[in-house]
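subagent[fold] <- orchestrator: predict structure for attached chain, return tokens only, no commentary.
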Amino acid sequence: MFKNEFYLQDNEGSFETYNLGDFELEDGGVISDLKITFSTYGELNNSKNNVIVVPAWFSGTREDYESYIAKERALNPSEYFFIVINQFGTGLLSSSHNSPEPATMENSPKVRMIDYVRAQHQFISKKLGIGEIALTVGKFKRVLQTV
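subagent[fold] -> orchestrator:
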């Protein structure tokens, strides 16, 4: 396992971790014991309809959004509940850098964008009990529908 001191809470600030368990990938393969790291800002209202999901970009982390989240900024936590989710592969959560054998580096399973979306959907619905979000900051070519 590769150790990277950059991806520690001392450097990245406060975040929470949620374990999704063994996560099956769309193209086959499994990420064992998949962990999602995230931070929330603002208050979730009783109707749970003020949710905006902010997925981090590839190699970015939720800390990169800190400067945009404030009352007088683009992402206003006094109006919405923001969930900023790190993308796996960053080192803050499950990645080829911190996974145990045999899923390290060149043996890492192939992950597609839809896998990130599915993992985030599972986290949001199971951990937070949210069935619908108001908005996602970012762009996806394929939309996951809730049933």
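orchestrator: received. Logging for downstream: The first helix runs from residue 9 to 12. The CA atoms of residues 121 and 144 lie 8 Å apart.
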